[in-house]
Amino acid sequence: MYDVLIIGAGPAGLSAAVYLKRAMLSVAIIEKQPLSGGQILTSYNIENYLGFTQISGTELAEKFKKHAEAAGACFIFGEVLKINKNSVELHNGKTISAKAIIIASGASHRHLGIKGEKEFIGKGISYCATCDGAFFADKSVAVIGGGDAALENALYLSNICKRVTLIHRRKRLRAAEILADESIIGDADFNKNKLTFDIEPYQVKSFKLNLKKPEKKGRESFKKLKPEFNAKGFTADSNMRHVILQGGGCSLPAELCPASLTVGGITFRMPDANESFDVCVARNQSIEIPKGTTKMYILAASTLGDREETFYVDGKEKPLTIFSFKEPIGRWDMAGLNQTALVKNASLGIEFTHTHHPEGNIANGKAYFFVYEIDVRNSETLTLPEDNRIIILAITAVRKFSNTTLATQITDKTPNTKYRFDDIPPIDKIIDKADFITIRAGKIQDQKNGGKGKGFKRDNIVTNIIRSYTKSEW
Fold it and tell me: Catalytic: 128?
């Protein structure tokens, strides 16, 4: 009986064997392949392994095995058929006993199974862009696939190769949102109220639009309240420490907090991020309702998932769903996971394009705060729930309800009861006006007409749904 039995003679299994032998334990390694080394054997040339400026995968694997042999590890050729509590059964009928078993069987690449693939592995065909990308510098390459791994590899190669072509068998990509960090590259030019720009595949471009102010400003029929701030939620670039939002693993960027915010005709007075306290944590506080108020609008979010909360108006329950500030408001459908498209029934108030962390900016680690409406007619007091996960940025009291309306909500409905996951649900409504507009994918095409049509105007709520392919004009 061995002290330890290791299944798999790849780098992980061989490293484990060396450390176990140094602990004076008896070790045996079971490998079903004729050569030890695992996936490294498929690498024709390696230039990024510390200690070797250049070495083939076969040579490096042989050095790994010799190191384990020198340490005293025993090698057994065979394929494991069954694992028991203190033994394994091999395909040839043998049983090997051990006090402990380490499974280091590794993984294998998905192969296309096409002619010539096996012959050219390591000689033009690769399964790891970060490992082998440098060998294809200034060359034209093709990436096959449409999932996360394929797009991540394509993005990586786009900075190295002359041309990258993505080959995908489906009509739509299955990849999730691509993380990106954006830098200011200068001002854009307008010509007759039209913005024209070039956008590369999967590239992100953002534009800050200064909208023309109306000639006549309507009379405000609301009062911007200042909540009782009792915690710190914003941090500056120079001091990205954890604050009350640490339940979400981040803090809000002070540089993106405006002095005031108008959403759907409702204006909020935003916190002063320079103050010691700049957010209100819901701790059962009571807020005096200004006389004549009919509606209260609250800009808030949850730091831990969507939460069912109860507000009280003169003791009467007002249930609300407070949405998570970290979860996207919309999700495109993923046929492979049987997940249909979803857009939360919420009014987005403000989107922070990144958040702060002690180690720096969290690129595209967005934070969302939503607008909630509470009917407070003929009432005197609004009482907040008792929940440290509910963060409030601003509150506005509306005196004349008939003069105020919320922004058009985003809806995404399935076309009929015969909906299939391979179908793309139509986008029925989209908010078409925003101060900050992120363009990712050019125009959103009319999915009802099979992707044809003029397309919709769009704002940053749906920017992560569809990605760009060609020159776009908005």
Answer: yes
Gap between the Cα atoms of 207 and 209, Å rounded: 6
Domain definitions of the chain by residue range: 2-103, 110-175, 217-403
Residue of 132, 278, 333, 412 with catalytic role:
132
Task: Single out the catalytic residue among 3, 128, 272, 423.
Answer: 128
At residue 114, the pLDDT reads 86
- Give me the percent of the chain exceeding a pLDDT of 70: 70
Active-site residue flag, 132: yes
Instruction: Specify the CATH class of 110-175 in words.
Output: alpha beta
Q: Is 131 a catalytic residue?
A: yes
Least Cα distance to 295 among 209, 213, 400, 218 occurs for 400
Which of 121-135, 265-279, 330-344 bottoms out in mean pLDDT, i.e. has the lowest? 330-344
CATH 3.50.50.60 describes domain 2-103: yes
* 380 in Cβ contact with 305 (< 8 Å): no
Q: Do domains 2-103 and 110-175 have the same CATH topology?
A: yes
Query: Looking at residues 199-205, what average pLDDT do you find?
Result: 65
Where does residue 451 rank: exposed (0-12), middle (13-18), buried (19+ CB within 10 A)? middle
